[in-house]
Amino acid sequence: LVHVLQSMNILRVGKPAAKSKPYGSFSEFYPFYLREHAAFGTKLTHFAGTTIFLILLSLSASLLLPLLAALYTGYVLFPFFRHIHTGVAEMCVMFGVYLCLGTHASGSLRTTVLPMFVAYGCAWTGHFFIEKNRPATFVYPAFSLMGDFRMFYDAIVGNIKMTDKK
Predict the structure, then answer these.
(1) Which candidate, 12, 29, 83, 89, has a CA 20 to 30 Å from the CA of 5?
(2) Is the pTM of this model over 0.85?
């Protein structure tokens, strides 16, 4: 697969980063992620989506490894796809890994898809209707997923305020 993608000029580590992908690490990306979630309502929809996701995940714990495998795959592939201006390629690979492994592990396509559908549905509602911006998932899918869990943690421990920053 790697050879095929390299021959199609899709998978290249040495190419310069796309202008839409200036962040090369999660530590560089996270402050940007927080700025994209300045409104209280956006944080609230993300917090609700992540909470429901974690509840659904706890009911089907077999999905934890597929989720981690998908996240790891996206994180590892990021340098290879950084020259492409969107994160669609990474998103498709990550979702494919999660879907295949999750359906195999849980035995149910519905059980596999429902937590992601709910979490992204809540989060994207906040972006499209409250913050009125484009979710970072469309450019940085792995970093965005990591950012969501980090923001959830930071909100619980009080590292960030759930109030508006605008």
Answers:
(1) 29
(2) yes
